[in-house]
Amino acid sequence: MQTPGFTPLSSDLIAALTAIVGTEQITTGGPGLETLSKDFYWYSPVLTDRIGDRVAAAAVKITDLAQLRQVVSLAAAHHIPITPRGAATGNYGQSVPLYGGLVIDLSGMDKIIDLSDGVVTAEPGARLSTIENQARPLGWELRCYPSTWVKSTIAGFVGGGSGGIGSITHGGLREPGTIKRFKILTVEAEPKIITLEEAETMRVFHAYGTNGIIIEVQLRLAPARPWQQLVVAGLEWDPLLDFAAEIAGDADVGKRLVSVLENPIGSFFAPIKRFYPTGHHLIFLEVDEANADAVVARAEAAGLTVPKRIPYHFPRKPPMLSDYTWNHTTLWALKTDPKWTYVQSGFGDNYREQFKLLHAKFPGELLFHLEFTRGNAKMGVHNVIACGGIPLVHFKSEARLREIIEYCTEIGVFTANPHTCFIEEGGRDLGYDVQVSLKAEADPHSLLNPGKMKAAPLPAGADPAALPRFLFT
Ligand code: FAD
């Protein structure tokens, strides 16, 4: 379906784009174009219903800045919407084009420009796994990375992600200091480069590619540590949760992951469920090898068992417990039963009580998947251990999903709503006005990922009636 308001690109424009990128790197129809118009929006039944049929008019894969400049210049001159795309593993339809136009796949612009002194500088399409694997022999590692690190790109992570493995020690991407510098390309007939340093990078961070095309990212790294993976199991929820909170809050234990999985979530993980007994709640940990024996002894003293230990190895290879945490947990649940979906929650200090309230109110509909982190930037909480997570929701109806989110708010549980592709509706209100003002400067014709930033105007000719409405629109 071509979204109302935009006609397909003319044959002259297609010819001009082909001349820039080559015939192999342009897709103008068929299943290939549909694939390039999608991400992991289908995690949400709401997004599936509203945006599952949106398709670009064409997609181009670019490999260097010179090509990108030419493509952007052409698109700007002809007022063609542009949706930047990395590996398209985003969950909120961030790289689904709402208004057709051109998808620009930047995954081929993937050089690591420099990796030294604890800082990586990379082109937008550099994969996080490549960066981690090149950093580690030099004594460095990513401060945090998403569970999709094997595929996902550095610009996609800062453009649409938030944090992940490592956030228990270093917080999310929004923590001051982690992102050092961005370079972005403006969308004009003569594109310019704008450099944003340190706090200024927040003008582009998590803006879904609406206010500049990221052409270079600089991230600070952390000293590399040898991570041992542990599975901790318990039949009782409260002692297991207490132990997870104790390890999460113990500054003397080096750690990269503290994920808590309510029974029966562990049964969804087909490739690894032989590692632990059935019917147990689980903690998946990554701790420094130097601390691992002591953590195991503490778990056993707390009445828990440690049925699986995976020693540090490099390069990392399966099984990796992180492949079952963060939003991979939802993926494994969906493989088991397509009725599972999710919310993204930040709990209060009274999280034990909040869990009880939620279980009582929605029996059988919620399963707790928790991720402990240092701070929760979306909630404005910094430098303290926070209990958040991605609870699974057994989907009944949109009305019920809305009711769950509303009840969460009522009892003080923060929700970053994942069932919308609008930046404003995703629980994202920190410093948002500076993102809007950058859009005016970097994208004067409002061509970048139109519709995702509600505060920005739509491009000329775009039909406002084609904008989707979500749970709280
Ligand atoms: P894409 O999905 O391609 O893009 C994301 C956004 O960035 C889009 O809006 C896109 O337009 C924009 N963008 C891409 N490139 C550029 C550019 N050069 N300039 C400007 N904008 C650009 N996220 C987390 O934060 N933590 C997790 O642990 C996590 N786990 C996940 C697990 C699963 C199974 C799935 C499906 C998703 C998960 N995600 C997670 C979401 C997503 O995988 C990550 O955020 C990932 O880093 C996105 O990278 P990408 O290259 O796939 O980006």
What is the topology?
Elements: H1 11-21, E1 26-27, H2 30-36, H3 45-51, E2 58-61, H4 65-77, E3 82-85, E4 102-105, E5 112-116, E6 119-122, H5 128-135, E7 140-142, H6 154-160, H7 167-170, E8 179-185, E9 193-197, E10 213-223, E11 227-234, H8 237-249, E12 255-261, E13 281-288, H9 289-301, E14 305-310, H10 326-336, E15 340-342, E16 345-346, H11 351-361, E17 366-367, E18 369-376, E19 381-389, E20 392-394, H12 398-410, E21 414-415, H13 432-442
Helix pairs in contact: 1-4
The protein binds flavin-adenine dinucleotide (FAD).
The site of flavin-adenine dinucleotide (FAD) has 38 residues, from strand 3, helix 6, strand 10 and helix 10.
Q: Can you offer a commentary on this structure?
A:
The protein is an alpha+beta fold and 473 residues long. The protein contains 13 helices and 21 strands. The protein has helices at 11-21, 30-36, 45-51, 65-77, 128-135, 154-160, 167-170, 237-249, 289-301, 326-336, 351-361, 398-410, 432-442, and strands at residues 26-27, 58-61, 82-85, 102-105, 112-116, 119-122, 140-142, 179-185, 193-197, 213-223, 227-234, 255-261, 281-288, 305-310, 340-342, 345-346, 366-367, 369-376, 381-389, 392-394, 414-415. It is globular. The protein binds flavin-adenine dinucleotide. Flavin-adenine dinucleotide is lined by residues 39-40, 83-91, 94-95, 106, 124, 146-148, 152-153, 155-157, 159-164, 208-209, 213-214, 326-328, 331, 449.
